[in-house]
């Protein structure tokens, strides 16, 4: 349950999903799009919380772990980035993004 209380912070201060994806329905693709949009806006810490939320609901989605790896790498959290890429490869050994 800590995951949800942390992730709710990502919804505050004009960073709600409606700001980025109007009329969004919760799906793995929409959560990942929202998280990646936050990265593009320089809100990397908030994007991490969204990717964690996506992982909670869609734990077999390799894209979530790719994006999470990118976010961690941007914050120089290299061990966390590596772990995210390793999880993506464990789920899908042919994942070309995680192999990089």
Keywords:
0% strand; disordered N terminus; mainly alpha; Serine Threonine Protein Phosphatase 5, Tetratricopeptide repeat; 7 helices; globular; 100 residues
Q: Which structural category do the helix and sheet elements fall into?
A: mainly alpha
The number of strands is: 0
Q: Can you count the helices?
A: 7
Fourth-level CATH superfamily: Tetratricopeptide repeat domain
Name given to the CATH architecture: Alpha Horseshoe
Order of helices and strands: HHHHHHH
CATH topology: Serine Threonine Protein Phosphatase 5, Tetratricopeptide repeat
Q: Give the end-to-end Cα distance, rounded to a whole number of Å.
A: 33 Å
Description of the structure:
This protein has about 100 residues and is an all-alpha fold. The chain has one domain (about 1-100): Serine Threonine Protein Phosphatase 5, Tetratricopeptide repeat (Alpha Horseshoe), CATH 1.25.40. About 70% of the residues lie in helices and about 0% in strands. The chain has helices spanning about 1-10, 15-20, 30-40, 45-55, 60-75, 80-90, 95-100. α3 runs antiparallel to α4 and α4 (about 45-55) runs antiparallel to α5 (about 60-75). The protein is globular. The model is unreliable at about 1-10 (pLDDT under 50).
């Amino acid at each position: 349950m800590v995951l949800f209380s942390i992730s709710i912070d990502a919804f505050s201060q004009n960073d709600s999903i409606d700001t980025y994806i109007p009329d969004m329905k919760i799906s793995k693709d929409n959560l990942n799009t929202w998280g990646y949009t936050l990265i593009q806006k320089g809100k990397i810490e908030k994007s991490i919380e969204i990717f964690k939320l996506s992982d909670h609901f869609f734990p077999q989605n390799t894209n979530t772990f790719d994006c999470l790896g990118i976010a961690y790498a941007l914050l120089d959290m290299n061990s966390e980035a590596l772990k995210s890429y390793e999880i993506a490869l464990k789920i899908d050994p042919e994942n070309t993004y995680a192999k990089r």
